């Protein structure tokens, strides 16, 4: 297979050579590894990489991935890190409109006609910077003689990958992992991994979130070794009976292995205190399902009491040697709409939520687990019980932490096409994607599948969200149907259908709106509505704001179908720099990097300042959210 | 000059009216149109005469819903309103303006139980209206201040209405009895009522500097400084001034900057070094809003109509005497 630069222009090409998306489980070689949560099946490639930044595709070094290529002239860059934050590309904040506004005229391929390919739009884009990365590595001894894959946890916005000169594949969807099999080409020593990252591709149309425009490898990269029989995908399906007391548990596995002969899979279920509740052993095959387990009385998971059960899967070979152990904490809870009200475990669901971008004023969207823990501490301080992952899948540890800490998650698909249908605040969808365009459908379905397959086991996730501000059409209706089909146990959310009500019956289980006034919400709820109401964004906390929250709070008492929402948003997005005049640290926003066209301070809408200190209005939020906890 | 019989000593100057007693000396200036000097325990508390306050530094919500555009005339009023009239009453009796040559009839031994002086300001708005600021000084040194705005239906809604006191040096901090944190009429239910101390004069670091630091429902506030501009006074011992409510709680902010200084900055680091204290005592504050930041108005009941009269009052407490 030969890579083609034209893939950048083609919305139908978005994954080439990638391994299928699967659950986010960890796996270990021994009990000791489980306890210390360090897996000798994994080798990190984070750290210093060699790097060259080309101004555009025409200026890139075309053969940099070849093993004999002399990279002595390459710079060094840290992985993970945004290329802009490393100084190779101008920092730029722009909200709705695309980054190339006023600089390059573009339209999405096929949006204005079936034969309108927009050839060369990105592959010859003069603004399309290219980051060329090289990493030389030896395999850890524990990784030898096994199948090996590489996992890129997050790369914006399109990348081509080679190992030792062999082309492996191509990936978009910046916010879910991209994995490639290295087994045919890997060597014990002196491997060269080459990654070519483009700032723009057709994926840029699908990733128009309101944030700083970054590109590069911004999440971790690691190698995964796989034992002879390996759990590739885990699907835990806990169900709570209608009596809200009994529980049923189904577990479905997909294994990959060279030789299943005699290999076994053991399922062990324990409660939180590690009392063993059930054990089953099955023969290993490509598809394994545990017999349904029934529990007379399950301890339910909720914000107040995020009780988790413990699953441990042990795969052994014919001789009884442990091949791998997979621990996974899961929960029993029931989310449903009954009599037009969202219920969690048979109680009215109250969302005291916030939208949250991944953000650090020092490192942008490249954040650490400590950053997440700090954010969650603030959630608890402010009585926030729900998170909308605006507007893309977050780093995997976030969902585990939300499981543990009882945060209700609206898990958003990596999709926003705001600039294709709204300009200067006015709806104008003449070149909207994905709309009802068949050429764009596979790409967005892939994003939904990546989101679902990766995160399906997290009890914290109550909603799948189709994305943000992407208007509505047949494609989003298809995505809605996908989520309903693969996962009837959760609700599906989407707000953009508000702008195209023709699709109202086919998209979104809930009436979701942004920034409606309390009066407008009361009007909807007074008029025999068909769907429960939530604010996917409300109380826009830009600067000195959060006035009038009491009027939203009052709706809870007036209308059973009012279920709260998610404040926009958690933290200001601003970047800490050294002030050019005083030499002191200073927070900067759009336009402060000579970046134009810009939306300037519009990214400063957080409950917290960008340095993580709370804004004064948080005492109001803590009060009202605490009142409804 | 000793305070004879616990009365106010009145000094009928040619450009000022001086009032003095135990541990205080106040000067009302006819030229500057207001209270020019407020000395308690030998320390000056005013840098310029207090002026009616109408503006607040534009918040992101104000910008988004075009409130500042619609009410821009109040920015001019905040900066350029001027005194057009004043009158004086002694012991409840209005007197003819005591300026030369009329004041030739007085001596250096004039005393009264109370003196009241009122300044009338004309707003730099189109159309204009007037604000009366009335100071009633009693022998103890207490000053009761009332501010009266005269409504005019042809004027746009007000951002705020109060009196701004600029002090010569920066406060080291302030203590108040009222609501915790930063509060506004539409954002004060999360606060706790009590006595709160704030070190220094923190400016809330909104990404774009804007209105901040408001404290609603206040019973009293004590400002503490430890430095004067008086060249003979090199002491750094802290000293304080207390503002008390009169018949209803007031709102205040205590910041090192005027609304106009905040208005002009695009980043907090552009603000000047901290040098003065700007204490704003307010009788009316517009809500901050929060539905969205690109058009939604503040909820109606938190607006300030310009059509109706606005009146509020407060007291500057008599000096605290540490014998």
Automatic annotation (TrEMBL), chain A:
Residues 229-333 form the Glycoside hydrolase family 2 immunoglobulin-like beta-sandwich domain. One of its GO terms (molecular function) is beta-galactosidase activity. Its EC number is 3.2.1.23. This is beta-galactosidase. Residues 335-626 form the Glycoside hydrolase family 2 catalytic domain. It catalyses: Hydrolysis of terminal non-reducing beta-D-galactose residues in beta-D-galactosides. Keywords: Glycosidase, Hydrolase. GO terms for biological process: lactose catabolic process. It is an enzyme of class 3 (hydrolase). InterPro entries: Bact_Beta-galactosidase, Beta-gal/glucu_dom_sf, Galactose-bd-like_sf, GH, Glyco_hydro_2, Glyco_hydro_2_AS, Glyco_hydro_2_cat, Glyco_hydro_2_CS.
TrEMBL record, chain B:
It catalyses: Hydrolysis of terminal non-reducing beta-D-galactose residues in beta-D-galactosides. Signal peptide: none annotated. InterPro entries: B-gal_small/dom_5, Bact_Beta-galactosidase, Gal_mutarotase_sf_dom, GH-type_carb-bd. One of its GO terms (biological process) is lactose catabolic process. Residues 18-317 form the Beta galactosidase small chain/ domain. One of its GO terms (molecular function) is carbohydrate binding. SUPFAM superfamilies: Galactose mutarotase-like. GO terms for cellular component: beta-galactosidase complex. Keywords: Glycosidase, Hydrolase. PANTHER family: BETA-GALACTOSIDASE. This is beta-galactosidase.
């Amino acid at each position: 297979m030969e890579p083609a630069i034209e893939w950048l222009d083609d919305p139908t090409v978005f994954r080439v050579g990638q391994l299928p998306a699967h659950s986010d489980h960890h796996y270990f070689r021994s009990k000791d590894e489980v306890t210390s949560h360090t897996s000798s099946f994994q080798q990190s490639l984070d750290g210093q990489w060699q790097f060259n930044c080309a101004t555009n595709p025409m200026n890139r070094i075309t053969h940099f991935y070849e093993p004999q290529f002399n990279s002595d002239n390459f710079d060094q860059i840290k992985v993970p890190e945004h290329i802009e934050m490393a100084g190779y590309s101008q920092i730029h904040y722009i909200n709705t409109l695309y980054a190339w506004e006023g600089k390059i005229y573009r339209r999405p391929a096929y949006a204005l006609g079936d034969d309108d390919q927009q050839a060369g739009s990105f592959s010859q884009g003069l603004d399309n910077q290219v980051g060329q990365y090289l990493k030389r590595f030896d395999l850890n001894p524990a990784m030898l003689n096994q199948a090996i894959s590489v996992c890129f946890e997050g790369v914006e916005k399109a990348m081509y990958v080679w190992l030792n000169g062999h082309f492996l594949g191509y990936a978009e969807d910046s916010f879910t992992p991209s994995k490639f099999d290295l087994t045919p080409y890997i060597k014990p020593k002196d491997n060269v991994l080459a990654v070519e990252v483009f700032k723009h591709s057709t994926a840029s149309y699908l990733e128009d979130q309101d944030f700083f425009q970054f590109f590069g490898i911004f999440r971790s990269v690691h190698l995964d070794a796989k034992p002879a029989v390996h759990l590739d995908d885990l699907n835990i399906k806990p169900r709570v009976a209608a009596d809200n007391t009994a529980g049923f548990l189904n577990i479905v596995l997909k294994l990959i292995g060279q030789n299943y002969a005699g290999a076994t899979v053991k399922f062990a279920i324990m409660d939180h205190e590690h009392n063993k509740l059930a054990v089953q052993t099955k023969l290993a095959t490509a598809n394994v399902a545990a017999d349904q387990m029934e529990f007379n009385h399950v301890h339910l998971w909720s914000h107040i009491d995020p009780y988790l059960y413990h699953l441990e899967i042990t795969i052994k070979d014919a001789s009884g040697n442990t091949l791998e152990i997979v621990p996974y904490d899961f929960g029993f809870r029931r989310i449903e709409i009954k009599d037009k009200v969202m219920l969690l475990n048979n109680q009215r669901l109250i969302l005291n939520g916030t939208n949250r971008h991944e953000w650090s004023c020092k490192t942008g969207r490249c954040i650490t687990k400590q950053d997440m823990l700090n954010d969650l501490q603030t959630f608890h301080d402010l009585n926030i019980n729900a998170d909308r992952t605006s507007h893309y899948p977050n780093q995997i540890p976030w969902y585990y932490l939300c499981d543990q800490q009882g945060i209700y998650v609206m898990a958003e698909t990596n999709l926003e096409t705001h600039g294709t249908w709204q300009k200067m605040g006015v709806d104008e969808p003449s070149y909207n994607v994905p709309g009802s365009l068949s050429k764009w459908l596979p790409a967005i379905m892939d994003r939904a599948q990546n989101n679902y397959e990766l995160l399906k086991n997290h009890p914290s996730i109550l909603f799948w969200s189709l994305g943000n501000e992407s208007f509505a059409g047949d494609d989003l209706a298809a995505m809605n149907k996908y989520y309903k089909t693969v996962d009837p146990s959760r609700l599906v959310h989407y707000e953009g259908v508000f702008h195209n009500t023709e699709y109202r019956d086919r998209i979104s289980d809930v009436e979701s709106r942004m920034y409606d006034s309390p009066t407008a919400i009361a009007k909807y709820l007074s008029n025999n509505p068909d769907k429960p109401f939530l604010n996917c964004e409300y109380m826009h906390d830009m600067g000195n704001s959060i006035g009038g929250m009491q009027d939203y709070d009052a709706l809870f008492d007036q209308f059973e179908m009012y279920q709260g929402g998610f404040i926009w948003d958690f933290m200001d997005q601003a970047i800490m720099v050294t002030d050019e005049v005083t030499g002191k640290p200073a927070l900067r926003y759009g336009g402060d990097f000579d970046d134009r066209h810009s939306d300037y301070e519009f990214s400063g809408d957080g409950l917290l300042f960008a340095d993580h200190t709370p804004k004064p209005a948080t005492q109001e939020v803590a009060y009202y959210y605490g009142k409804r906890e | 000059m000793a305070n004879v019989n616990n009365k106010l000593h009145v000094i009928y100057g040619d450009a000022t009216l001086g009032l003095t007693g135990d541990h205080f000396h106040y000067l009302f200036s006819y030229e500057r149109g207001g209270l020019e000097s407020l000395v308690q325990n030998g320390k000056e508390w005013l840098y310029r005469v207090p002026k009616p306050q109408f503006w607040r530094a534009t918040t992101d919500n104000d910008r988004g819903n075009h409130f500042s555009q619609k009410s821009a005339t109040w920015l001019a009023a905040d900066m350029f309103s001027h005194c057009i009239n004043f009158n004086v009453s002694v012991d409840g009796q209005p007197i003819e303006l005591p300026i030369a040559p009329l004041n030739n009839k007085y001596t250096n031994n004039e005393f009264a139980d109370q003196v009241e002086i009122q300044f009338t300001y004309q707003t730099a708005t189109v159309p204009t209206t007037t604000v009366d600021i009335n100071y009633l000084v009693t022998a103890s040194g207490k000053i009761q201040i009332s501010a009266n705005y005269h409504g005019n239906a042809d004027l746009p809604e007000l951002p705020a209405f109060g009196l701004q006191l600029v002090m010569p040096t920066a406060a080291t901090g302030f203590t108040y009895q009222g609501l915790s944190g930063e509060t506004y009429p539409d954002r004060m239910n999360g606060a706790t009522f009590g006595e709160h101390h704030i070190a220094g004069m923190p400016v809330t670091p909104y990404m774009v500097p804007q209105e901040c630091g408001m404290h609603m429902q206040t019973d009293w506030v004590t400002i503490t400084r430890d430095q004067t501009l008086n060249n003979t006074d090199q002491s750094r011992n802290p000293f304080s001034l207390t503002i008390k409510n009169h018949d209803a709680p007031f709102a205040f902010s205590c910041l090192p900057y005027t609304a106009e200084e905040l208005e002009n900055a695009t980043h907090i680091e552009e603000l000047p070094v901290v040098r003065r204290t700007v204490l704003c005592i307010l009788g009316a504050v517009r809500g901050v809003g929060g539905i969205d930041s690109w058009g939604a108005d503040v909820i109606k009941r938190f607006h300030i109509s310009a059509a109706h009269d606005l009146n509020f009052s407060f007291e500057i407490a008599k000096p605290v005497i540490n014998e």
